[in-house]
Amino acid sequence: MVILRAARDDDTPQLTEVRTSTLRERASGSYSESELAAIAPKNPDPDRGSGTIQNESFDVIVAQDDGILGFGVVHPSDCQIHGLYVKPEATGEGVGTALLEELEQRCRETGSESLFALATLNAAPFYLKRGYEKISERTISEEPEIPVIHVEKSFAEE
């Protein structure tokens, strides 16, 4: 049974591995190797996300069963999703949807009327199927530029 919980500092290496393996496997058809290297280096620093977990302005939520299946990060003050990753082998089992619903609920609790993400090209369909609207195509980073899709969900329409 999948449970959702707040991330802990000792989760950082596993979260880094989930993020890297997800991007490397799921985004490889959408990005060049140089783009992938920029967003998901093959040998990432295992403590890469520790600052986000420790930063109280971010909510980092973990989906766990026998181990970590995925995680999501939201900044409730501006209701931006900063990442949502599910292990490739857990894709299609509802883990991503459960995480997304939790991130959305945390933003609703702030009184926000909407939530947005800068989704990777491969992740945009996931958001669109769950009521998000495509706002624009844009790039993040400078070298190399990484194409993303700005998606947004209005809570007022629910």
Question: What's the quick description here?
Answer:
Helices cover 29% and strands 31% of the residues.
What report would you give on this structure?
The protein has 158 residues and is an alpha+beta fold. It has a single domain, classed as Aminopeptidase (3-Layer(aba) Sandwich), CATH 3.40.630. Helix content is 29%, strand content 31%. It contains 5 helices and 7 strands. Strands 1-2-3-4-5-7-6 form a 7-stranded mixed β-sheet. A hairpin with a 4-residue loop joins β3 and β4. The longest helix is centred in the N-terminal third of the chain and has 15 residues. The chain is globular and about 40 Å long. The chain starts with a strand and ends with a strand. The model has no long low-confidence stretch (mean pLDDT 92).
Spatial strand sequence of the major β-sheet: 1-2-3-4-5-7-6
CATH architecture: 3-Layer(aba) Sandwich
**Percent of residues in beta strands?**
25-35%
Question: Topology as H/E string?
Answer: EHHHEEEHEHEE
Helix and strand layout, with pairings?
Layout: E1 3-6, H1 12-26, H2 33-39, H3 50-54, E2 59-64, E3 68-75, E4 80-86, H4 95-108, E5 114-120, H5 124-128, E6 133-140, E7 146-154
Parallel strand pairs: 4-5
Antiparallel strand pairs: 1-2, 2-3, 3-4, 5-7, 6-7
